[in-house]
Specification:
Layout lengths: L13 H70 L8 H14 L4 E6 L4 E5 L7 E5 L7 E6 L5 E8 L7 H9 L3 E2 L3 E5 L2 E13 L5 E10 L1 H9 L7 E6 L4 E4 L6 E4 L2 E4 L8 H13 L8 E7 L2 E11 L5 E9 L1 H51 L13 H15 L4 H52 L5 H31 L5 H9 L2 H33 L7 E3 L1 H11 L1 H4 L9 E5 L6 E3 L1 H23 L4 H6 L3 E9 L3 E8 L6 H4 L19 H12 L3 E7 L3 E9 L9
């Protein structure tokens, strides 16, 4: 009797059930990934633009602080020198040379003084190269003479004569009226050397009795700010510009200058009149709310010529009265071009993935459905009473198993309970086997975790060992001292054993067996060697510890007499790992030329630090030079460090350390002892090593530290310290 079960709802073909959800999932997943990728890209663009603008703002801010602090600082130094009587305003030639020297040291356009008597003088560099000296009296006309100068700052000839009146010039009257350091109004002029735009820092000057002598001023060329802004790498279309509070342009990163020439007269350029559309549109936007109303950092976005720009406006002030606006802008399309290209690529890949997934789904479903349909037809036949059914096997493992199971069920129905029990037993065995495998895996995981924990402990232990290295000395000395007695006792015991063997050639079987088990003959020959090796090892440890103690001078931190050669040798031993040969370069040869030098009174640990800094720089220079050469070239011209010591004039110790590395350019030699100055890449040096060394030699020991170098040939540092250094006024 056939039993029919009513269907609940509409049924769908298996092929559609397999393909459609598969395709929908792929389409939804790829579309969601593409959408999230696009949105994350936009969010990343906004964050990146803000970071770039903030970084640019910080760089410009630091440069403005550094560049604009120079004139005020020089004015203060010069005013203090005049007030203390160090500089005499009546000595015009000396004062001219003094200003000439400052113009050589700093990138300025003018340094000058105007006196209450109507007289004055200054040094100028309008063309950026040639320095002239202006000297004027109080009697008009042609009271001012401009002198050319030689390379020593001496006046050579009068190059021009012209009129000048202190009392009618704003740079003089404003400073006198203010009675304090100020920034004067930005000045422009069209000189024979070219257009001139400058900011002038000025302040009153007084004599030692606090009587007003006049004023002093220092000018800087504002076009140098535009040069700096152009050097910033913000983006292909990004802009940085500076504005006064009335909207007048001070400097910009574009090619446009902050002034225009009208009938051969120079005029300041307003930002809203700029030929640069970016500067012009941003200025007009700011003008709507007023330039003066901007009192804090302001961010906004602005559409300029159909392109969106990120804009940041920051007020910039200093304590001497400057009140500017700093504007940084970056176009959005600088970052969005690659995002849009990636979006188009993502859409194309989504469509391709959808088509490919649909085709593969159709073939896969057809491949899976056909064996299932055959099983379905056979099942329906069996339900109809025809038990003689067999189905073909499939290449799919699971379907093949199902077909075989179906064939066994049809052919051996009477063995079903036995087969079921057997399957149950097999399942239990598999569960037990899997449980055993999981247990083994868990044990392996625990062992691995223990190894990781042990590795971390060893790492921490390594850090602790570095901290207690100085505690090694006592136990090593104890072991080293006892090894001598152990060696003597061992030799006595071995001699006793040999004497025993000599007089007892037939020992008891137990003794003979024990001697064979311990390999007595090998022990007698190897034990002295082992003790000798241990002694060599303790000697090496003591030598290393002694070198570390000599270098740091832990027990000699105070001022006392020491052998300077011990400090140099200890430093060389600590640096031995960098001096010895490596696969990529031969050994760095150290040539010692030690003279007969008495004990030197010094801070030994600090002098060792000086040796360390100079030797490390020498090794760095040699490695930098070797990186450009082949191994054979380095062998033909080996890297060398020469160390020479001697006594000069019976009172000075001289230590010269020279290398044949890359050398130092003349430009860098002048700054090598400046704090934080370094030619090494970021992360390789702080620029404090040579500055600290210079301080130790000159201030702590009253000595000299000089550098002599030729670029491409090498560098030599010469240290000179007195054999008896004065400390707190006592020899």
């Amino acid at each position: 009797m056939k039993t029919h079960y009513p269907s609940k709802g509409k049924a769908f073909p298996l092929q559609i059930v397999l393909v459609v959800p598969f395709v929908i999932q792929i389409f939804a997943a790829v579309s969601l990934v593409g959408y999230l990728s696009f949105k994350n890209g936009q969010r990343a663009v906004n964050d990146l633009a803000k970071q770039l603008i903030d970084r640019t703002t910080d760089v410009v801010d630091e440069h403005l602080k550094s560049y604009l602090s120079i004139p005020q600082t020089l004015n203060q130094i010069n005013a203090d020198a005049i007030g203390r009587g160090i500089l005499d305003v009546r000595d015009r030639k000396t004062l001219g040379k003094y200003f000439w020297d400052q113009m050589q040291a700093y990138d300025l356009t003018y340094i000058g003084i105007g006196l209450t008597t109507g007289e004055g003088m200054g040094a100028a560099r309008y063309d950026g190269k040639t320095i002239t000296i202006d000297d004027w009296t109080a009697k008009l006309p042609n009271n001012t003479s401009t002198y050319a100068t030689d390379n020593q700052g001496n006046r050579t000839q009068v190059s021009a004569r012209w009129n000048w009146d202190n009392f009618s010039e704003s740079w003089y009257t404003q400073s006198i009226a203010a009675g304090k350091p100020i920034w004067g109004k930005i000045v422009t002029a069209n000189l024979p050397t070219g257009p001139y735009i400058t900011a002038s820092a000025s302040r009153p000057i007084y004599d030692s009795q606090n009587r007003l002598l006049g004023m002093i001023a220092t000018d800087i060329h504002l076009l140098k700010l535009s040069d700096f802004l152009r050097s910033l790498n913000i983006s292909k279309s990004g802009q940085v510009f500076l504005l006064e509070r009335d909207g007048t342009l001070i400097a910009s990163s574009g090619t446009e200058k902050p002034f225009v020439l009208v009938n051969q007269k120079i005029q300041r350029l307003r930002a809203i009149d700029s030929s640069d559309p970016i500067i012009q549109n941003i200025a007009k936007h700011l003008q709507t709310s007023g330039f003066e109303s901007i009192t804090q950092d302001t961010d906004f976005q602005l559409d300029i010529q159909g392109k969106r720009h990120f804009v940041d406006v920051l007020p910039w002030r200093d304590k001497y009265g400057l009140n500017w606006l700093m504007v940084v802008t970056v176009p959005e399309n600088t970052f969005m071009e690659q995002i849009n290209a990636n979006t188009r690529t993502t859409i194309a890949l989504c469509f391709g993935a959808l088509v490919f997934a649909s085709v593969i789904g159709v073939f896969t479903s057809h491949w899976i459905v056909r064996p299932i349909l055959r099983l379905n037809w056979a099942s329906e036949a069996m339900a109809s009473g025809n038990l003689d059914q067999r189905v073909k096997t499939s290449v799919v493992r699971e379907l093949n198993t199902l077909s075989n199971s179906f064939n066994h069920m049809a052919g051996q129905l009477h063995e079903s309970f036995t087969a079921l029990e057997k399957s149950k037993q097999e399942l239990e065995d598999r569960v037990e086997n899997r449980t055993t495998e999981l247990k083994n895996a868990l044990e392996e995981l625990q062992r691995t975790l223990a190894q990781v924990i042990q590795s971390e402990k060893m790492s921490s232990l390594g850090q602790l060992v570095a901290g207690v290295a100085h505690e090694i000395n006592n136990p090593v000395n104890f072991i080293h001292g006892n090894l001598v007695y152990v060696q003597e006792y061992t030799q006595d015991l071995l001699a006793f054993v040999q004497l025993y063997q000599q007089y007892d050639s037939n020992p008891a079987p137990e003794i003979q067996t024990a001697a064979e088990d311990m390999d007595l003959e090998f022990l007698q020959s190897d034990l002295p060697k082992m003790l000798s090796s241990m002694k060599v090892g303790t000697d090496r440890i003591r030598q290393i510890v002694l070198s570390l103690r000599n270098f740091s001078r832990i027990d000699e931190a105070e001022f006392k007499s020491v052998d300077i050669h011990e400090g140099i040798d200890s430093t060389l031993m600590i640096l031995q790992h960098r001096l010895k040969a490596k696969p990529e370069q031969p050994e760095i040869e150290v040539i010692k030329d030690y003279g007969t030098v008495p004990l030197v009174e010094c801070y030994a640990g600090q002098l060792n630090q000086v040796f360390m800094n100079i030797l490390v720089n020498a090794i760095d220079a040699l490695e930098e030079n070797n990186a450009k050469l082949t191994y054979e070239n380095i062998k033909d011209n080996p890297s060398q460090i020469k160390i020479r010591t001697s006594v000069v004039n019976s009172t000075w110790l001289e230590v010269a350390i020279a290398d044949n590395g890359v050398g130092i350019s003349k430009e860098f030699q002048q700054r090598i002892f400046d704090p934080f100055f370094t030619t090494k890449p970021v992360g390789k040096g702080t620029g404090m090593g040579m500055s600290i060394s210079y301080q130790i030699v000159t201030e702590k020991h009253g000595g000299k530290l000089e550098c002599f170098s030729t670029s491409g040939e090498g560098t030599e540092f010469i240290i000179q310290v007195p054999l008896q250094v004065k400390v707190h006024g006592v020899v």
